[in-house]
Design a protein that fits this description.
The complex is a heterodimer of chains A (965) and B (62). Chain A is 65% helix and 9% strand. Chain A contains 40 helices and 12 strands. In chain A, β3 and β4 form a beta hairpin. Chain A is rod-shaped, with a radius of gyration of 50 Å. In chain B, α1 packs antiparallel against α3. The chains are: A alpha+beta (965), B mainly alpha (62).
C-alpha cells in the first residue's frame, strides 16, 4: 500500500488537533481532575522518555547490538527502584524551593552566577542533537511511506505545529512554577498512542507474519542465530556503560526532569510511577524483537529502524500504517514539546533574565506578561535551533547514536547530583570544574567528529578499543570526577553552599538560609520594586503573605523573616534560585539574624529525620508538648524581646493565640500585657506576687517570675517568663476566711451569751426573791450577791475588750525572772494556788522586750491554769532558757492533761475545759494574742501525765548582742 | 516515646531492591539469562520480576 502525501499530512494534522483538544479539555476541567491527576496519567506522561529512538530506533539497535537496546530501559528501571532515595528527595526539594529545571537545581545547590548559565549552555548543546533526531525520524518515517515528501518542508511544518502546541499548552500559565495539567494529560495520551501502536504492530507481526506464538517458536527453532544475534553483544558489549547512561538519563534529561518533578501535581503519584513506569517500558520493548524477527523473516529492505513502519504497510486496510505513523509523530512531538519547555525555562532563568534584570535600568510595567512571552519566544527558538541542527547533521548518524550523545552529556551531571545527597564538602568551584572538564571531553570525542567529519583528536587515548560509548563515558566521567573532587577539596564551601547542602541532604534538617532581615514590609517592597517593577513586587508580596496567611500590615520580625524566606522561594519559581537570592540579598538595611528558627524547620522536616536525629526530635516534641500543656503560663523571649514560646495557658490567660503572639516584641503585645511584662522585664525583681490585673473585664491575681536562659551570643539565649494565675486560689482563700470569720463570730457570740447569761440568770433570780423579801439582812445579802455577779459580768466584758482591742503601750526592756516571781506571788494568793508547790527554774539575765503588765497577765494565766489543773498538793514547774534569738519559757503541770480532740481548741475564745462558772474561756486566747503581739509563739504538749505550755519570746536586742559577742 | 517506622523503611527496602536488581542484571547473573537454550523472553521475565518486587515493596506500608 502506498500513501499520498496529503493523506499523511491530514492524518498528522487530525492527530495533532486531537492532542490540542485533549490538552484544552484538561485545562478547562472537562476531563475530571481525578483522571488528570491519577497516578497512571502521571506515569504515562513520563513515557516522554520513549522517543522515536524507542519507537523506530530500537529495532535497528537490536539488529546491530542485540539486547543492548534494553539497557536504555533497564537503566531507567534501576533509577526508579531508587525513587525513595533519589527521586522523592529531589521532588521534595524541587517543590519546597520551587525549582523549575535542572539548572535551577544546580544553581540552588552550587550557588554561583555561573552555575545555571553553564548547565543551560551544556544542556542546550547536549540536547539539540537529540531534538534534531526527532525531526529526522518524523521526516524519514514520512519518506518511508511516500517519496513525494520534501524533507525540509515537512520538517518545518512539523516544527511549527509542535511549537504552536508547546506555546499554547506548555507556556499557558503566567509563571513557570504553575502546573500544566493539559500538557501532562496530552503527553500521557501520546505515550498511550505509542504503546498501542507498537503493541499493534507486534501483534500483527506475531499473528500476521508468524501465524501466532507457535509459529514464532518454530521460526526461532529454525533460525537459532536470531536469538544468538540478540544475546551475543551482551557478553562483550557496553552493557554496564549503557545501563549507567540510561540510569542518569532517567531523571537528568531535561524533559524527564520536567515531567517527573516540575509538572508533578501530586507527590504521592511518584510512588506508583516507580514501578508502573518501568512496566510501561517493558511492555513497549516486548514488541521490539518480534518486529525485528518479522522484518528478517519477510526480508524487508531498508534500515531496520523503520521495520515497524514497513511492516505496517503489509497490513491490510492501511489502519496500522496510520497508527504506526501517528505513533512516531507522537513520540517525536512529545519529546520536542517537553524538551523545548524545559530548555526554554533554563534559558530564561539563566541566560536572559540575569542580563535583563541586572542591566535593565527600568523594570517593565507587566513583568509577568514579559516573562510569559519571553518563554514562548525561547520555546520557538529552541525548537528551531533543533531544526537547524537537523538541517546541518541530517542523514549522517543513526537514531541511536544521536540519542546516546545526549545521554553521555547529561551523565556529566550525575556526580554533582550524588554529591547533593552524600557529599557536603562539594563546592561550586568543584562542580564548575568537573562539569566543564567532562563536557569538554564529550565534545571532543563525540560532537566534534559529528560536525567536522574528522576523527576525534582523542581517538588514540587508551581504552578506545572498548567501544565509543565506554571510551567516552570513562574518560569524560573520569576527568569530571577527578576535577569535581579535587577542586572541591581544594576550596571551602561558603555559608550559602553549606546552607544549600543542609537543605539537600537526606539526613539533615531543613534550615532557613541565613540572610539579612528585612526591616519592614515596605523595605521588602522597595527592594523588589527596583528589579521587578511595582506591580509585580506588590503581587509577589501579596502572594507570599497569602501563602503564610499573614496580614497585609505584618510587622513582627519573626514573621517578616518567614515572609522573606517564602518570597525567595516564590521568586525562585519565577526567576530561578540564583536571581531570587540576589534580589533579596541586596538589602543592607536589615540586621543579620543569628536565629535559625530551628523549631519550625524541624516541624517541617520531621519526616526526613533519621536515626538519632529522629529520636531527638521525638523527644523535643514530647518536651514541647509538656511545655504547651503546663497549667502555668510560659512565655519565652529572645534576646531582642521577641516572643518565641507562648503556651496554651498563656494564650488562655491573655486571649491572644500563639499564632498572634509569636514573633511580636513585648512592646507590641496588646494591653495590658505590653506594660505588665515590659515593666516586670525592666525591673530588678525576679518575682512579683499577687499582682491585680484586669483581663478581659475580670479582675485576676497573677504571680510573675522571670529567669535568664543561656548566655549572650548563644542562639538559645533569652528570658523565660512564668505567669501564674492565682485568681481561683485567691477566691478560695477569701471564701475560707469569710467562713472562718463567720464561725468565729458564732463561737464568740455563744461564748458571750453563755458566760454573761449565767450571772444574769443569777441576778434575775435574786432580784425576784428580793422583791418579796422583808428581812433587811437577807435583802443586803441578796444585793451583795447581785453586785458580785455584776462584777463578774464586768470582768468578762473587760477581758473581751482586752482581747478584741488590746491597749497598745511602748515596750520596755524587761528581765524575765522578776516577772515570773511576781506572777507566782499573785497566783499563790488564789484559792487554787495555795496548795500547789511551784518550782522555779528561771535563770537570771534573761531579757525580753515587751509590755510588763500584759506579759504578767500571760504568766498569771498560765500559772493559774496549771494550778487549776493540778491536784491538791500537786507540783508546777516553771523553766526558762535562752535559745538562738529567743527565750523559751515552759510551764508544766502534772495534772489530768487535755484530751487530744480538745487540744487544738484551747486557744479559741470562750472554749474551756473547766467547770461552768469557774472559767471564762478567754484566758488562753488572751495569752495567745499577747504572745503574738510580742512577736512570739505559744504551743502546748499534753498527755495523761500533765500539760506543758511553751512560750517563745524574742530576746531583747542588747541581750542578743551579748550572746553573739 | 515509641517511634513508628518512617521513610527510613521504604528507603532501606528500595536500596536492597536496587542491589538485588543490579546483581540480577549485571554479570555473572546476566550470563545465566542469556545462556544458550534459554527462551528469548528470559531477560524480560527477570525484568518483570524486578518490577513486580518493586510494586510489592511500594504497596506494603512503610
Amino acid at each position: 500500500m502506498s500513501l499520498e502525501l496529503w493523506q499523511l499530512f491530514l492524518a498528522a494534522l487530525i492527530y495533532l488537533g486531537l492532542l490540542f483538544l485533549i490538552a484544552y479539555a484538561a485545562e478547562e476541567g472537562w476531563i475530571p481532575a481525578r483522571v488528570a491527576r491519577h497516578p497512571l496519567t502521571y506515569t504515562l506522561s513520563l513515557g516522554v522518555y520513549a522517543t522515536t529512538w524507542t519507537f523506530y530506533g530500537s529495532v535497528g539497535f537490536a539488529q546491530t547490538q542485540g539486547y543492548l537496546f534494553l539497557t536504555i530501559y533497564l537503566g531507567v528501571t534501576l533509577a526508579f527502584l531508587l525513587a525513595p532515595l533519589l527521586l522523592q528527595p529531589m521532588l521534595r526539594l524541587v517543590r519546597d524551593y520551587q525549582l523549575t529545571s535542572l539548572a535551577d537545581l544546580f544553581a540552588f545547590r552550587y550557588p554561583s552566577p555561573w552555575t545555571g548559565t553553564l548547565v543551560t549552555v551544556f544542556m542546550l548543546v547536549g540536547i539539540l542533537p537529540y531534538i534534531s533526531l526527532q525531526i529526522q525520524a518524523v521526516v524519514t518515517s514520512a519518506q518511508v511511506l511516500t517519496q513525494e515528501v520534501p524533507p525540509g518542508v515537512l520538517a518545518l511544518v512539523f516544527c511549527v505545529t509542535v511549537t504552536l502546541f508547546a506555546v499554547l499548552f506548555g507556556a499557558r500559565q503566567v509563571t513557570p512554577r504553575e502546573k500544566h495539567e493539559g500538557l501532562v494529560v496530552a503527553i500521557a495520551f501520546e505515550s498511550l498512542i505509542k504503546l498501542v501502536a507498537l503493541l499493534a504492530v507486534a501483534a500483527f507481526a506475531l499473528f500476521g507474519v508468524f501465524g501466532g506464538p507457535a509459529g514464532l517458536d518454530d521460526w526461532l527453532r529454525a533460525n537459532p542465530q536470531a536469538i544468538e544475534q540478540l544475546h551475543a553483544p551482551l557478553r562483550d558489549g557496553a552493557w554496564t556503560t549503557l545501563l549507567l547512561l540510561a540510569f542518569s538519563a532517567a531523571f537528568l534529561l531535561p524533559r524527564q526532569f520536567h515531567m517527573i518533578f516540575t509538572e508533578n501535581i501530586e507527590p504521592s503519584t511518584l510512588r506508583t510511577a516507580s514501578w508502573a513506569f518501568p512496566l510501561f517500558l517493558l511492555l513497549l520493548n516486548l514488541a521490539i524483537p518480534i518486529v525485528l524477527w518479522s522484518g528478517q523473516k519477510l526480508g524487508i529492505s531498508g534500515a531496520p529502524d523503520y521495520y515497524a513502519l514497513r511492516l505496517a504497510l503489509q497490513a491490510p486496510g492501511g489502519w496500522l500504517t496510520y497508527l504506526v505513523f501517528i505513533g512516531g509523530i507522537s513520540a517525536a512531538s512529545a519529546m520536542i514539546i517537553v524538551e523545548s519547555l524545559a530548555l526554554a525555562a533554563m534559558c530564561l532563568n539563566h541566560l536572559v533574565l540575569p542580563l535583563w534584570l541586572r542591566h535593565s535600568p527600568t523594570p517593565g510595567h507587566d513583568f509577568y506578561r514579559q516573562l510569559l512571552w519571553g518563554r514562548r519566544v525561547l520555546i520557538a527558538l529552541v525548537i528551531f535551533t533543533g531544526y537547524g541542527a537537523y538541517l546541518s547533521v541530517r542523514d549522517t548518524q543513526g537514531l541511536v547514536q544521536l540519542g546516546l550523545i545526549s545521554f553521555v552529556a547529561v551523565t556529566q551531571f550525575l556526580p554533582a547530583v550524588i554529591a547533593m545527597y552524600a557529599w557536603p564538602r562539594a563546592t561550586r568551584a568543584g562542580f564548575l570544574a568537573g562539569v566543564s572538564g567532562g563536557m569538554t571531553l564529550w565534545f571532543l570525542i563525540l560532537v566534534l567528529p559529528l560536525l567536522t567529519g574528522a576523527p576525534s583528536p582523542l581517538a588514540g587515548w587508551p581504552l578506545h578499543e572498548t567501544g565509543i560509548w565506554t571510551f567516552t563515558t570513562f574518560w569524560s566521567l573520569g576527568i569530571n570526577l577527578l576535577l569535581f573532587t579535587g577542586v572541591s577539596l581544594l576550596t571551602r564551601p561558603t555559608p550559602k553552599e553549606q546552607s544549600a547542602d543542609q537543605a539537600c541532604r537526606l539526613d539533615a534538617v531543613l534550615l532557613l538560609s541565613e540572610q539579612p532581615r528585612a526591616a519592614s514590609l515596605r523595605a521588602l517592597r522597595e527592594q523588589l520594586d527596583t528589579a521587578l517593577g511595582p506591580v509585580t513586587a506588590q503581587a509577589e508580596i501579596a502572594r507570599a503573605l497569602a501563602d503564610l496567611k499573614l496580614p497585609a500590615d505584618e510587622q513582627r520580625p519573626r514573621q517578616l523573616l518567614f515572609l522573606q524566606e517564602r518570597l525567595q522561594r516564590n521568586l525562585s519559581g519565577l526567576v530561578g534560585p540564583q536571581l531570587a537570592r540576589e534580589l533579596l540579598a541586596a538589602d543592607s538595611s536589615g540586621t543579620p539574624t543569628a536565629s535559625r528558627l530551628v523549631e519550625e524547620e524541624l516541624e517541617h522536616s520531621q519526616s526526613r529525620l533519621r536515626g538519632l536525629a529522629a529520636e531527638l526530635n521525638h523527644l523535643r516534641r514530647f518536651h514541647r508538648q509538656i511545655l504547651q500543656d503546663l497549667p502555668i503560663g510560659v512565655c519565652s523571649l529572645g534576646l531582642d524581646l521577641e516572643v518565641q514560646i507562648w503556651n496554651e495557658r498563656m494564650a488562655a490567660l491573655s486571649g491572644l493565640s500563639a499564632d498572634g503572639a509569636l514573633g511580636m516584641r513585648v512592646d507590641q503585645l496588646p494591653a495590658p500585657w505590653n506594660t505588665l511584662l515590659g515593666e516586670f522585664l525592666h525591673s530588678e525583681a525576679r518575682h512579683r506576687y499577687k499582682l491585680q490585673v484586669t483581663l478581659q473585664e475580670k479582675r485576676r491575681w497573677l504571680n510573675l517570675h522571670k529567669e535568664d536562659v543561656g548566655v549572650a551570643g548563644d542562639a538559645a539565649a533569652g528570658l523565660v517568663l512564668l505567669v501564674e494565675d492565682l485568681t481561683e486560689q485567691q477566691q478560695l482563700e477569701a471564701e475560707l476566711a469569710h467562713s472562718a470569720r463567720l464561725a468565729s463570730i458564732g463561737t464568740l457570740a455563744s461564748g458571750v451569751a453563755h458566760e454573761i447569761g449565767n450571772p444574769l440568770t443569777g441576778i434575775t433570780c435574786i432580784a425576784q426573791n428580793l422583791r418579796d423579801e422583808g428581812d433587811a439582812a437577807e435583802r443586803r445579802s441578796g444585793i451583795e450577791e447581785i453586785l458580785q455577779q455584776s462584777r463578774r459580768i464586768s470582768d468578762i466584758v473587760q477581758s473581751l475588750l482586752t482581747f478584741a482591742r488590746p491597749e497598745q503601750r511602748p515596750f520596755d526592756r524587761l528581765q524575765l525572772l522578776p516577772m515570773v516571781e511576781e506572777a507566782l506571788r499573785l497566783v499563790k494568793l488564789s484559792r487554787s494556788g495555795r496548795d500547789i508547790r511551784f518550782e522555779l527554774r528561771v535563770p537570771t539575765g534573761l531579757w525580753i522586750e515587751g509590755d510588763p503588765a500584759r506579759l504578767t497577765q500571760v504568766l498569771l494565766n498560765l500559772l493559774a491554769n496549771a494550778a487549776d489543773a493540778s491536784p491538791p498538793g500537786g507540783r508546777v514547774e516553771v523553766r526558762a532558757a535562752r535559745g538562738a534569738g529567743s527565750i523559751t519559757l515552759e510551764v508544766q503541770d502534772w495534772g489530768s492533761g487535755i484530751p487530744e480532740d480538745l487540744r487544738e481548741r484551747v486557744f479559741e475564745p470562750f472554749f474551756t475545759t473547766k467547770e461552768p462558772g469557774s472559767g471564762t474561756g478567754l484566758g488562753l486566747p488572751l495569752v495567745y494574742r499577747i504572745v503574738s503581739d510580742h512577736g512570739g509563739s505559744i504551743g502546748v504538749l499534753s498527755g495523761d501525765g500533765g500539760t506543758t505550755f511553751t512560750v517563745r519570746l524574742p530576746t531583747a536586742p542588747d541581750s542578743l548582742n551579748t550572746v553573739l559577742t | 516515646l515509641r517511634r513508628t517506622e518512617g521513610p527510613e523503611g521504604s528507603a532501606e527496602r528500595a536500596l536492597l531492591l536496587f542491589l538485588f536488581a543490579a546483581g540480577a542484571l549485571l554479570s555473572p547473573a546476566l550470563l545465566l539469562w542469556i545462556a544458550p537454550g534459554r527462551p528469548w523472553w528470559t531477560l524480560y521475565a527477570v525484568w518483570g520480576a524486578i518490577i513486580a518486587a518493586a510494586a510489592l515493596a511500594q504497596r506494603s506500608p512503610p
